[in-house]
Amino acid sequence: MSTRLEALVIGAGISGLATAYALAKSGITVRILEAAPRPGGVIQSVKRDGYLLECGPQSFSGNGAITSICKDLGILEERVLADPKAARYVLIDGKLQAVPMGPGLLTSSFLSGGTRGAILRDLFGKSQAPEPDESVASFIRRKFSDTLLERLVGPFVSGIYAGDPETLSLRAAFPILYEAEKARGSIIRGAFAVMKQRKAAATIAPRTPREKPTLQTFRNGNETMITAIAKHLGDRLTCGVQVSSIQAVEADHEPNAVRFRIVAGGPRGEETLETERLILATPTEVSGKLLESFDAGFSAPLSAIGYSGVAVVSLGYAMKDVADPLTGFGFLVPRSSGLGILGTVWNSSLFPGRAPEGHALLTSFVGGATNPGALGKSPEDLAAQVHRELTPLLGIRKDPVFSNVTLWQRAIPQYNLGHTARIAALNNLRSRYPGLYFSGNYLSGPAIGTCVEQSLKTADEVRISFTN
Ligand SMILES: Cc1cc2nc3c(=O)[nH]c(=O)nc-3n(C[C@H](O)[C@H](O)[C@H](O)COP(=O)(O)OP(=O)(O)OC[C@H]3O[C@@H](n4cnc5c(N)ncnc54)[C@H](O)[C@@H]3O)c2cc1C
Question: What is the pTM of this model?
């Protein structure tokens, strides 16, 4: 006997959870299936030995969508916000140098005179529009300088995508900059105009309240939001159940007819579910495989989206053994430094309760698209390497007293050259199958806030389809 549903979501990372949450709120009969024993996907908070660490994302930029969900779930008061002025450092010539924020960048010695001149030309002049699909590196070199790419843009790209600026697409990875440049021939003037336009559009049709993005987490870690959504969903969420196949059901012409038959396996055996609307919130390679027997055409655009692998190394030190006062957010590392670390977040400086009294928790990222071999190392070797590299930078005098390493072989989707065309092909094919939807971090951006916004949009589409 199979269960019949109005909507079924596969995958309970933040994208699947936010989609299911919004569907349930609209009164749609929904279930969400998750292969792992726990929901949350890459969002995992761990409490151990007095430390509170994050195995995946360390924090996130808030937005209206997240705030409104948190308010609904009664966890808004649990949020902790980072100091928006917390200094961010970049490793230059062997030293951590604070990145000047805002206009201060123009007068600082952080950038060469040539780069500062190029920034001024951007502000007051007009340059040739970007290529339809140009790499971030090529664009920054052409418009500004190698120094800007090396010192600021490269490390920043590592911080978001763990990506390679030579292959990341400006248009797909940084759409605001692409639109700005295309519209005004100036990133700075154009970005202001694009943001003003978006703000106006949101005022005309407000979906969720707008708010300034502030870096945040929760008193008990990022997982607070996951646990709260999961609790709200109750028995609509089932974990430890792996979906193994999706088949098309011969649909009649009713708009709300059953269209998909899903087979899922778990400890209690196999289960077959039938649904009118199916939302895949799984990583691209899983979605491609699951849809293979449904329509093999999905496999090409989905499997062409690569992921960078990242090792997340959290080390705890006694503060008395660290010379650096660790005031700020942490630091990013240009690839030319030769270090394995891409960047380090000073968790205990940013948020309370991350380390026992008198201790510091520092989380470093190793690997990424420019160093895939790092993921082949053992957790012990990675922890030792990070400690070795941090020691001279932060004046560390003793070994760490705490260590945790998480390896993500497929951590973050890469919005590489061709990404926009791949997503267009995916949507084009999807339009042939009413009732089929995608949610996930490869669609509009990998940040948690963007995943939530994207998921609410998907849920809206599903909801509207019931009224058509
Ligand atoms: C190391 C790291 C650091 C990051 N740092 C930040 C940061 O600082 N700030 C920020 O905003 N974002 C950050 N991100 C990005 C952000 O965390 C992710 O993009 C986002 O959480 C992805 O959510 P998702 O639901 O789309 O995918 P996932 O979390 O990957 O969820 C997909 C789910 O599908 C499930 N699944 C797979 N196959 C099946 C199947 N056959 N049946 C059922 N279920 C299945 C999986 O088990 C998983 O739970 C980081 C990501 C990583 C990995």
Answer: 0.94
